# Entry
Amino acid sequence: MAIEDLKNRGMERADVDKRRKAVEEITGAKLDNVSSYPFEPQAAAANIENMIGVVQIPMGFAGPVKVNGDEAEGEFIIPLATTEGALIASIARGMSVISAAGGARVKVFRDGMTRAPVFRVKGIDHAAEVMAWVNDNPDKIIEAVKGTTSHGQLTQIEFFPNGRSLHMRFTFDTGDAMGMNMATIASEAVCRLIAENTGAEMVSVSGNMCTDKKPAAINMIEGRGKTVIAEATIPKQLAEEKLHAPVHAIVETNTRKNLIGSAMAGGLGFNAHAANMVAALYLATGQDPAQVVEASSTMTVCEEVDGDLYISVRMPAVEIGTVGGGTKLPAQSEALSMIDCKGAGKARKFAELVAVTVLAGELSTLGAQAAGHLGKAHADLGRVKK
# Structure
């Protein structure tokens, strides 16, 4: 049977097996490990096309870590999936220091998923007319959104005219879903309404000012998904005993590396390796791994306050969900259960734990670099012993 005949044929295990065998015949590769998985393929029907099996990533944990959040309160064991040796050990060290210092404080400051369509207009006067119509007809726009979702709500529209292009940035409250699909479908409905009443023509439902799955200053400034800040104060003695570096050295490392170095490089993330922690936690819990890009726009700040170390991370684009998407897959659902973030009413709690995990990883890595121990840690933990 030709491989074209097997595409999207079905999600029964027999269908998956047929596709895999066809791929083996064409490529000459043996996919024995890919074929081994404990759940029925139908569980992934909404997550993948042309399924031939699974790729398994080792999962471990870091913690417990003490968290003093608005939603996350207490001690948590954090699930992390990675192939990078030394990563979980480093996060775990940071968590132990934070817990010994009394825990991390964390808060969600903003919450809204964005979609930014672009319209073709006749010129700047037409752009102004379209903007005026949108501002004058909020009830009609709200009704258009309600016709597509019972959960999402449009909370803001921003305008960015540029010649014969008119970009609009819609912000939605998407509840406990990450909400990208919800925002896209609702935005299309609003754009049809605008086009019918103004003559503006939608070119794309995404005009790249959202900005989705790409680094962008607008996300750093205005946020996308959840904007979260986590902080901790590490006593001087604890920093020296556990991180093996004086407070002033950690502060200087952060300033010269994360702030000055990132600015000189033109970076949009001012951190040591926030993407590492985010990727491991997203993979473990069924989040969209492409949105690690936006989460890497994290800024890490360190200060010496009365001799102690104050450290914080600002994460302007934590795009996560506790319902829908990959969260329904069996293993990922179990991982969310580990942190009591499975299901409705848990998204803000989960976002707080993401930020605390990044805080721990940043603290540990800055300590290792300030002490000159980073290379040794990777040599000891990240390599197979001969």
In short: DSSP finds 14 helices and ten strands in the chain. The CA atoms of residues 67 and 74 lie 5 Å apart. The chain has three domains: 8-56, 59-111+226-381, 117-204.
